[in-house]
Each structure stands twice: as C-alpha cells, then as structure tokens.
C-alpha cells in the first residue's frame, strides 16, 4: 500500500513514519505487530490478547487483570483511557481499526468518501432509522472525531449547569483537548460570504473566533489543521502512560460478565472477539472500585447493556437473553437533532469547506454551511448523506421501492449527469434540543448488526415550528447579496431550490407533491441527520449523576448516551471533554490529593 497525492507531502515525518507502520494493522495485513518502537506502543491487534482460563485464575495470579476496562475507543473513550492510565491499569477495547493510515479519514478533501464506504471494515457504519433517515456511526479508534465535519465548539454554560458538572474542572478539561488537536480554521470565501449573510439576516452580533457558545454569528475551531489533515481523539492517547494502557483494536465486545451471587449484580469483566472471530475474556481486578466503563456512543452503549441482560425484561426474554437487571428505560429517550438543507447552485466549482461558521439563533435553530463536496468525480459516483447533491435521484422510483439498494443503483448512473449540476454548497438548518424522542431496541443478538432505532423526527409540534422558521431564515441567507458572486447567472427562486431538495435522495421518506408549498411538509419529508443523536442511558433512569449504572456495581457509562440534549452546536468538543473530565473525577474520588496529574 502506498501514499498517493502531493497533498500528503505536507505531513510531518513523524506522522508519516507512524502511518506507514500503522498500515501493518489493516485487516489485509499479514502478521500481528504492535507499535512498540513508535508513538503508540500500547496499541495491538485483539488477537494478541492472551485470554486466561477463568477469573479465579486471574485473581489468584494477578496477571492480565485491569483496574478499568473501557468498551469503545471513541470520542469519550480515548481521553478517558489516557487519563485513567496515569494511575491505573486500563484496557481499552475498540471494535474498529486505527485511523492514522486511512486517507479517507485523515484528509478533509476525502471526508465524504468515508461516509459513502459501506464495506464491513469502513470507519463509518451506515444505518437507517425506522424514520427512513440515512445515518452513520463510527467504527474506528477515535470514534466520531474520525468521520465528522470537524467543527469544534464548547457547550453553553446552561448545559454545564444542567448536567451538574464542576465548572472549574470543566474549564480545565476543555483546554487539555484544545491544546492537542484543535486548530483555527483557514476561512474560505464561501464561509466569509455565509458569515456576512447571517449578519445581514439578523443573526447578530458577530462574535469573531471563539470556542464559546454565544448567541449570534461566530467562527469556531476545527480538528483539521491548515494542511487539511484531521486530528482525532485517538491522538489524545499520546498522553497516556504507555506502561499502564493497553489498546486492542478489532476487539468487538460481545457482552459484560456479571457476578450475580451477591445482593446486586457486579461487573467482573467482558467477553470480546478478535479479528479472527476467536473469543477472549478480559477480567477486572478484584477491587470494589474497579469498573467496566461503556463509552460506545448513543447506539453502542444501550445496545451493549441490552446484550448483557440489562433492559426491559420482556424485550430481553423475547431474544432469550438472560435478565441481569430489569430496567424499562434502557434505550428510551433517543433523540437526534433534525437537519434540513438548501442546496445552492453556483456558477463555478468552489473550494471545499466543512463547518467553519455558525449562526446561533435565539429561537432554537442553528444555521451552518458547507461547500464543494458534490462536484468532484468521486463524489458524483457515491452517496454521502449530508453532503449529497444528487438532484433528481430516485424521483422516478415509487416511494415504497426507495430502498438502500435502489439508491446504490442510481449512484452508478448519475455519472452521466453534467458535472456542472453538482457545483454548489449547502445551507444547513438544524434544530437545537429537539423535544421529539424515540427509542432503541435490539434487532437481534448479533453485536455487529445495528440496533433498531426510531427518533420520531418532528413528532413534537415545537420542533416543526422551529424548522419552518429555520428554513425561512436559510432562504433569506441564500438570497443575500453576499452570495451573488457565487450564484450570478444561476440564481433560482427559493421554491425551485426547495423543490431540488425534495427530489434529491436525502432520505428514504415518501415525498409529497405539496412540499414546496408547505414548509411543514418540506421539513418532514427532507429531514436528514448530522449525527448528533444522543440518549438511551439517561441520568436518573439508567445511570446515576456520576454515570454509574443503577442497580449494579462496578459498571459506568461515559458518553453521549447519557445526554438529554446535544451540547452546543456540535457535540464533539464536550464529549471529548467529558472523557477527560470523568477520568479526572474518578481519579480524584478514588485517590483524593494523590490524583493530581
């Protein structure tokens, strides 16, 4: 395998050396090598794990037992593991591979290709909610930070107060992230025009460049550097104690193991399978404060609780899962921030940009923008969800036949469309703190399969009302004089632009003929996701305020599944901070003054 493309020559020599070595870890590589000579000596293939025969043996001999076993090396799991490893032995289990040598993950210009990759080893695992909305979940070390649009912005002070976090510790934890992987974006002309348009339509004041969540228009941070290279949560592992941390990739946890002989179930370890399908058991140290910590995300964590026997008794028994704890709330209260877009055709190809500018309104809507991702030859040959510019796709296929397979079939034919049809950008309108909620249930007992998820977009009338207001504002932004240079000779009426969105394959929801006449119907029929789903393990119902699973011991959940709302305009900053924050808090609660790092 070789690096291709001049843009990669900008990569630093250490990064190149690390990336070349990490290629050895790809599923197609022969031989299982660790990174002992390089930056991350603690990352290994799951098959390198030496499973001991029983927890009794492990406890007696004191070998291969861990103070903390973290399930999910994602946005929260990586900073959590790095922090806990400063004082304790930590095992971090990640079902995907590493991101470092994956050019589709590493470079902004390839952002959309990862989302389009539906192969079994892709960093992005596609799923479709029962609502008919295309979505994605991460399957790679670094989690969602490897497949998202890169925008970095903190939660509001209201959110921090609502979840009960220590503001001082929060303000120590955010900079720990920012100093390692966050950058100031190099603004594109499109993003500058978008900023001026937001101010024109009244999303003011202009707050300049800031990480803070402030009403008005601002530029935020990004995890893409000036060369367009992505920096993910996986890089936060560089701060770990390499002697106390073991990271296993291609390690798919099947279930949590409990001791049920006491007054309440106690987590004692996990069962996982490696890349060859062989099963292993990882065991917790026999101490009261040792823990299994789920950091598998808003889909993965409730799914893992259910597979392990914690959830609604009737649902578990239907799938012949032994009930460890009957809790009707596991998987309930799932929410996803609904997003709708307006595609803006331009008179020429424009530079690619992801989210750099955001308008934070006072009526509960965020306005963002992207540009240039529909126009390249590789884009025209694939479907990439949020960045889709597939005008006319599936419009001739009856709604009941609009399947994933039908979408793929259309992708093969759209290369015949003129490339000019794909020039342009998007104005994105997203609802903050949706009141509509749904649920997650197991489709089966195969952990590799997605659970069944329903978000019930726009079930609550207030969400729909805000969407209509947001689309009206987006329409004003599109018509602003600041976009004239991009849209000269291509300007279309708003009705035509909205109709183009209706005809595009943005979801699998049946369309209605009155979409462009009724903005309410437009919102319902063209809703998409920007992957900010959350919930399923809510505080007070599934976990305590310190995220310990209620009714069992030595089990905790640290990720966005505990949130009742998505923090800030984009959640990755706060989810990474949560990993660092909870790591510090666990150490301080356990060690007191001895926890100082």
Automatic annotation (TrEMBL):
It comes from the Eukaryota. Its cofactor is FAD. Gene3D superfamilies: 3.30.410.40, FAD/NAD(P)-binding domain. Disulfide bonds join 467-523. Coiled coil: none annotated. FAD binds at residues 94-95, 140, 253, 531-532, 560, 571-572. The keyword Isomerase does not apply. InterPro entries: FAD/NAD-bd_sf (IPR036188), GMC_Oxidoreductase-Related (IPR051871), GMC_OxRdtase (IPR012132), GMC_OxRdtase_N (IPR000172), GMC_OxRtase_C (IPR007867). Keywords: Disulfide bond, FAD, Flavoprotein, Signal. Residues 1-31 form the signal peptide. Residues 138-161, 297-311 form the Glucose-methanol-choline oxidoreductase N-terminal domain. The keyword Signal applies. GO terms for molecular function: flavin adenine dinucleotide binding; oxidoreductase activity, acting on CH-OH group of donors. PANTHER family: OSJNBA0019K04.7 PROTEIN, PROTEIN HOTHEAD. Belongs to the GMC oxidoreductase family. This is Protein HOTHEAD-like. It comes from Cucurbita maxima (Pumpkin). The gene is LOC111479901.
């Amino acid at each position: 395998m070789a690096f291709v493309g001049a843009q990669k020559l900008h990569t630093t020599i250490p990064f190149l050396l690390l990336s070349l070595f990490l290629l050895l870890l790809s599923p197609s590589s022969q031989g299982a090598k660790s990174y002992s000579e390089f930056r991350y000596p603690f990352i290994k293939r799951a098959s390198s794990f030496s499973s001991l025969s029983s927890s009794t043996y492990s406890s007696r001999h004191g070998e291969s037992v861990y103070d903390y076993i973290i399930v999910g090396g994602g946005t929260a799991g990586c900073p959590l593991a790095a922090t806990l490893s400063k004082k304790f032995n930590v095992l971090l289990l990640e079902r995907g591979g590493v991101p470092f040598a994956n050019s589709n993950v590493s470079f902004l210009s390839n952002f959309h290709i990862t989302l389009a990759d539906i192969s079994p080893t892709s960093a992005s695992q596609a799923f479709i909610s029962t609502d008919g909305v295309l979505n994605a979940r991460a399957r790679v070390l670094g989690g969602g930070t490897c497949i998202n649009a890169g925008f970095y912005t903190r939660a509001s002070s209201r959110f921090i107060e609502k979840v009960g976090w220590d503001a001082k510790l929060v303000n120590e934890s955010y900079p720990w992230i920012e100093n390692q992987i966050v950058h100031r974006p190099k603004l594109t002309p499109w993003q500058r025009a978008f900023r001026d348009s937001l101010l024109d339509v009244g999303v003011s004041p202009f707050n300049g460049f800031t990480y803070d969540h402030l009403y008005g228009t601002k530029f935020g941070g990004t995890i893409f550097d000036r060369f367009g290279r992505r920096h993910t949560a996986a890089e936060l592992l560089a701060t770990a104690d390499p002697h106390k941390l073991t990271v296993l990739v291609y390690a798919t946890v099947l279930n949590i193991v409990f001791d049920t002989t006491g007054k309440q179930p106690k987590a004692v370890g996990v069962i996982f399978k490696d890349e060859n399908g062989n099963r292993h058991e990882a065991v917790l140290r026999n101490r009261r404060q040792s823990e299994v910590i789920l950091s598998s995300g808003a889909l993965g964590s409730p799914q893992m609780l259910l597979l392990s026997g914690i959830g609604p008794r009737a649902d578990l028994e239907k799938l012949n899962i032994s009930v460890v704890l009957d809790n009707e709330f596991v998987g309930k209260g799932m929410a996803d921030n609904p997003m709708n877009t307006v595609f803006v055709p331009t008179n020429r190809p424009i530079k690619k940009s992801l989210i750099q500018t955001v308008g934070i309104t006072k009526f509960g809507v965020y306005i963002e923008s992207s540009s240039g991702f529909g126009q390249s030859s590789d884009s025209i040959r694939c479907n990439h969800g949020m960045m889709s510019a597939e005008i006319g796709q599936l419009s001739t296929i009856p709604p009941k036949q609009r399947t994933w397979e039908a979408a793929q079939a259309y992708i093969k034919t759209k290369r015949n469309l003129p490339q000019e049809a794909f020039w342009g950008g998007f104005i994105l309108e997203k609802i903050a703190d949706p009141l509509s909620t749904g649920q997650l249930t197991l489709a089966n007992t195969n952990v590799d399969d997605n659970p069944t998820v329903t978000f019930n977009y726009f079930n609550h009338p207030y969400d729909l009302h805000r969407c209509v207001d947001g689309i009206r504002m987006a329409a004003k932004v599109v018509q602003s004089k600041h976009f004239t240079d991009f849209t000269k000779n291509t300007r279309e009426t708003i009705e035509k632009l909205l109709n183009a969105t209706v005809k595009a394959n943005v979801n699998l929801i049946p369309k209605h003929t009155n979409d462009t006449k009724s903005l309410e119907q437009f919102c319902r029929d063209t809703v998409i996701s920007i992957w900010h789903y959350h919930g399923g393990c809510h505080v007070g119902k599934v976990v305590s305020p310190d995220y310990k699973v209620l009714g069992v011991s030595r089990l905790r959940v640290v990720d966005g599944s505990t949130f009742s709302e998505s923090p800030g305009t984009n959640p990755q900053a706060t989810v990474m901070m949560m990993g660092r924050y909870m790591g510090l808090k666990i150490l301080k609660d356990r060690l007191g003054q001895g926890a100082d790092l």
